[in-house]
Amino acid sequence: MGRSLKSKTIHGIFWSLLERGGQQGIQVVISIILARLLLPAQFGLIAMLAIFMAIAQSFLDSGFGSALIQKKDATQVDSCSIFYFNIVVGIIAAGLLCLVAPWIAAFYEEPALTALTRFLSLNLVINSFALVQTTLLVRRIDFKTQLKVSIVATIGSGIIGITLAYRGFGVWSLAIQSVTSTIFRTVLLWFFSNWRPSLVFSFAALKSMFAFGSKLLFSGLLDTIFRNIYLVVIGKFFTAADLGFYSRAKSCTRLTSENLTSSVSRVTFPVFSKVQDDISRLKRGVQKALTTLVFLNFPLMIGLLVTAKPLVLVLLTEKWLPCVPYLQLLCVAGLLYPLHVLNLNILMAKGRSDLFLRLEILKKILVVIAIAVTYRWGITAMIYGQITVNILGYYLNSYYSGKLINYPLKEQIFNLAPYLGMAMVMGMGVYSIQWFRFPNNCTLLISQVLIGILIYTAINWIFRMPAFVEIIDISRGKLKLSKLWLCKN
Fold first, then answer.
1. Structural contact between residues 351 and 343, judged by C-beta atoms closer than 8 angstroms
2. I want to staple 242 with a disulfide (CB 3.0 to 4.6 A). Which of 89, 186, 238, 459 is the partner?
3. What is the chain's pLDDT, residue by residue, as a tens digit (489 residues)?
4. Do 174 and 180 contact (CB within 8 A), yes or no?
5. How many whole angstroms separate alpha carbon 201 and alpha carbon 82?
6. Based on the number of CB atoms within 10 Å of its own CB, is 42 exposed (0-12), middle (13-18) or buried (19 or more)?
7. CA distances to 186, 199, 259, 274, 457 from 177, in Å
8. Domain coordinates in residue numbering, the chain
9. CA 136 to CA 131: how far, in whole Å?
10. 257 DSSP 8-state letter
11. DSSP reduced 3-state for 436
């Protein structure tokens, strides 16, 4: 049973990383093309609406998705009840957004936001029809199916967005791309998923999951609001172009740190939930997940930090150059993101959504204080505030989750410090290359990336770091399976 769960976990993480990596790789290409065709201020307009869409999306799931994953004996009645509940909430949320759209536009003093808000609210109604399918795929640790869905939806909507941007639709090309992506994704999830709703509904089923899910809902709302609150503050007190620069820098770090973490954490949460009563086994799983994540995340964040300027110049052109200092500082904040998420996964897997909520409230108070102190000195100062809050937040998360599984902060740091040291050595090597003469920024960037990979791989090979060795073994196993599959077919 242990080997079966381990195999399922490895298989799930492999396909989850492939799904995220494939989708985001395509999305990067699409974003680069759109960034060249559109203006920073047009991206800023969409970023102004991010918090409202994200809040509505949090209500749409209402924490029942996580409750369905965590519940050991989930039934068809549970799934159907959540499905119909999601649809009702999706319609109500979209209607409310349509009503408040003029007030949102007045708040930012951007009249174009009224129509954009109403159009983007369609995402909520469409997405409500696919939330249960997505949740059940996560519960089964089936990310292979999600890979197919994500790739097709991203390519299809990307082609539409680029075509519209090229024809001069401006900010509407981004809005239409978003809605068509949701349509493609929902249709494909219904096509690939075996689950179908029955004509059953139970308030009792919802009530039984509400105790767990409601706390995650409020925690998720807090996280959503405060994850996007910087967009609101910057959009209100600075220009749309400034917000465009910040949101572009933020999207670069999300592409790496947050998507990598999400790929692993959405596998580890259901896996941790299955072994929640076996503390020693749960601790071993957390240790492996943490070291694997930082093995990948630390060099990505530090590498992105030192290559930020040539990267922006090569991919996005000089008009996006002001986002470079924001990107570099956000990379520092991104170093800690995986540590936050996995420590919170422990609380959810142990059913401690009450503690999860208390921690989120405390950390959001810290965010408010940081913004109140730093906003008057500009966007750079606000990002320094983010870094400070991230450090304090990691301490709080690890303190309580560490108590539950006997894995305190001191032991976590001891496990993770070698990977940070190696990533910093790699970063210094990559940074030093810029002092040599290169014919252009593209050659410099390629050289930095290749040297960074060589240095980091060599250091891990010399010291035989556990996460490196395990990833190599897993990759070899997957390669053998692929060869066998090809031979049979």
1. no
2. 238
3. 444 555 555 555 555 556 565 666 787 788 888 888 888 888 888 888 888 888 887 777 656 666 676 666 677 887 788 888 888 888 998 999 999 999 999 988 889 999 999 999 999 999 889 888 887 777 776 667 777 888 889 899 999 999 999 999 999 999 999 999 999 999 998 888 888 888 888 887 777 777 666 666 676 677 777 778 888 899 888 888 898 899 888 888 877 766 666 666 656 656 666 666 667 777 787 788 788 888 888 999 999 999 999 999 998 888 899 999 999 999 998 888 878 777 777 777 766 767 777 887 888 888 889 999 998 899 999 999 999 988 888 888 888 777 778 788 888 889 889 999 999 999 999 998 888 888 898 999 999 999 999 999 999 898 888 878 777 766 665 544 444 433 444
4. no
5. 8
6. buried
7. 14, 33, 20, 38, 38
8. 1-237, 239-489
9. 9
10. I
11. coil
Angle between helices 259-274 and 279-306 (to 10 degrees): 180
Please tell me what DSSP assigns to residue 397: H
The pair of structure tokens assigned to 7 is 């195999």
